[in-house]
Amino acid sequence: MYVGIDVGTSTVKAAAFDGAGRELAVAARPVELSMHGGFVEQDMDEVYGAVVAVLDEVTAGTDGTVELAGLTGQGDGVWLVDREGRPVRAAASWMDGRAHELLDQWLADGTFETVFRRTGSAMFPGCPGPLLAWLAAHEPRSLDAAATALYCKDMVFQRLTGARATTDVSDASMPFLDPRTRSYDNGVVELLGLTRRRGLLAPVADPLATAETRGEGLPAGTRIANGPYDLPACALGAGVTEPGDGLLIVGTCLASLVATTELDLSGEPAGLYISLDRPGHWLRAMPAMVGTAALDWVLSTTGVRHAEVDALLAATPPGANGVRVLPYFAPSGERAPFVEPRLRAELTGVSLESTPADLIRATCEGIGFAARHCLEAAGLTGSLAVCGGGTRSPAWMRLLADVLGRPLRVVEGEVGARGAVLAAAERYGVPLDTEAWTRPTEIVEPDAGRAAAYTKGFEDHLARLAVARGRER
Question: Which runs of consecutive H residues, i.e. helices, occur in 24-99?
Answer without folding.
Answer: 44-60
